[in-house]
From TrEMBL:
Higher taxonomy: Bacteria, Pseudomonadati, Pseudomonadota, Gammaproteobacteria, Lysobacterales
Keywords: FAD, Flavoprotein, Oxidoreductase, Transit peptide
SUPFAM superfamilies: Acyl-CoA dehydrogenase C-terminal domain-like (SSF47203), Acyl-CoA dehydrogenase NM domain-like (SSF56645)
Gene: gcdH
Catalysed reactions listed for this entry: glutaryl-CoA + oxidized [electron-transfer flavoprotein] + 2 H(+) = (2E)-butenoyl-CoA + reduced [electron-transfer flavoprotein] + CO2
Protein name per its UniProtKB record: glutaryl-CoA dehydrogenase (ETF)
UniProt domain Acyl-CoA oxidase/dehydrogenase middle: residue ranges: 134-224
Top-level taxon of the source organism: Bacteria
Length: 389
């Protein structure tokens, strides 16, 4: 018989990667296998983010990975960043969320919308994990309508005074700085707000059933005063935060592939070892049909994200393409995680197996940075030219 195909990569998508991209994937994969997987079930169970992993994540060059080397970053391409997200989420969505927020939602706006002084002040220390950031856009009443922003910043001499509240903020209670978006007389603008500024409070959200190995917070800004030097000078309007979200959503298209692969591998191993009615579960047609469908959907997602990454690296990626991939790939992973949990039987409800953890995490991933419905409507608008929001 010919050698069997890799069940997690039936189309040998890995062969389409460059040597450097494969090296990035292998390096992050080893980190996840050796450092993340042995502890992440307990972290999820305890509701604890594994902050002890931050130094090694930084040492591997995974924070702000696509930002140029002059700022202390790795200068990788977009596909490499996607593979980082895929491998980290194979460990846990909370870990990938940490890296996504730091890289795409905090370092990216400083790089893209800040001035050179801001870049040199913050980016090298953020790449080293010495400064952690959070991204303050979503508000308690806002959700999918960021234009309905209540947080405001008013000019007072050479300073700005910010008042408002933000909700569902990843890294909020870890952060040293917050990228806060606020309404001004001149439109929405972004500010780099040190979290030790008087009037700034972060309150961690507890009793979560999803992203338990992640820090989620509410931010409150009560007459928070920052200098104009803390304002991001090179963008105004929703273009700023939405541009950040496009970068982060791109990584999210890759991340759930890793979660789905973790679930599929686990259930393949389990169904081959679990014997019922005198034969392994994997010998049943019903099981094989489900496994085959999972492999089909993972393969589709892999090819979708790889092409999206090539478009990104060519400077041709459009937000609608990101929406299509985010919608498809997160839905794919969530459905697979749920089915794998079912196929594991009673064992599937414990964190001794990964499927329930991934399924619960993906309930958040399918909601944040654009709900599934929002991304469907973005694609619908592209097809028809009519805005149905």
């Amino acid at each position: 018989m010919a050698a069997r195909l890799n069940p997690l990569d039936l189309y040998d998508v890995r062969s389409l990667l460059t040597d450097e991209e494969r090296m990035v994937q292998d390096t992050v994969g080893r980190f996840v296998d050796e450092k993340v997987l042995p502890i992440i079930g307990d972290c999820f169970d305890q509701g604890r983010f594994p902050g002890e992993l931050i130094p090694e994540i930084a040492n591997l060059g995974l924070l702000g990975a696509t930002i140029p080397e002059k700022y202390g970053c790795a200068g990788m391409n977009g596909v490499s960043y996607g593979l980082i997200c895929q491998e980290l989420e194979r460990g846990d969505s909370g870990l990938r969320s940490f890296a996504s927020v730091q890289s795409s939602l905090c370092m990216y706006p400083i790089y893209a919308y800040g001035n050179e002084e801001q870049r040199m002040q913050y980016l090298p220390k953020m790449a080293a994990g010495e400064i952690i950031g959070c991204f303050g856009l979503t508000e308690p009443h806002g959700g999918s309508d960021p234009a309905n922003m209540k947080t405001n910043a008013k000019k007072d001499g050479g300073d700005w005074v910010i008042n408002g509240a933000k909700m569902w903020i990843t890294n909020g209670n870890l952060a040293h700085i917050a990228i806060v978006w606020a309404q001004t007389e001149d439109g929405i603008q972004g500010f780099i707000v040190p979290t030790d500024t008087k009037g700034f409070t972060a309150q961690e959200v507890h009793k979560k059933m999803s992203l338990r190995a992640s820090v989620t917070s509410a931010l409150f800004l009560d007459n928070v005063r920052v200098s104009d030097a803390q304002r991001l000078p090179n963008v105004k309007g929703l273009k700023g935060p939405l541009g950040c979200l496009t970068q982060a959503r791109y990584g999210i298209t890759w991340g759930p592939i890793g979660a789905a692969q973790a679930c599929l591998k686990e259930v393949i191993d389990y169904t081959q070892e679990r014997v019922l009615f005198g034969r392994p579960l994997a010998a049943n047609q019903a099981i094989q049909l489900k496994l085959a469908d999972m492999a089909r959907r993972i393969t589709t997602a892999q090819l979708l994200s790889l092409q999206l990454g090539r478009l990104k690296d060519a400077g041709k990626m459009e937000p609608t393409q990101v929406s299509l991939a985010k919608w498809n790939n997160v839905r794919m992973a969530l459905d697979i995680a749920r089915d794998c949990r079912d196929m594991l039987g009673g064992a599937g409800i414990t964190v001794e197996h990964s499927a329930i953890r991934h399924a619960l995490n993906l309930e958040s991933v399918i909601t944040y940075e654009g709900t599934e419905t929002v991304h469907q409507l973005v694609v619908g608008r592209e097809l028809t030219g009519i805005n149905a929001f």
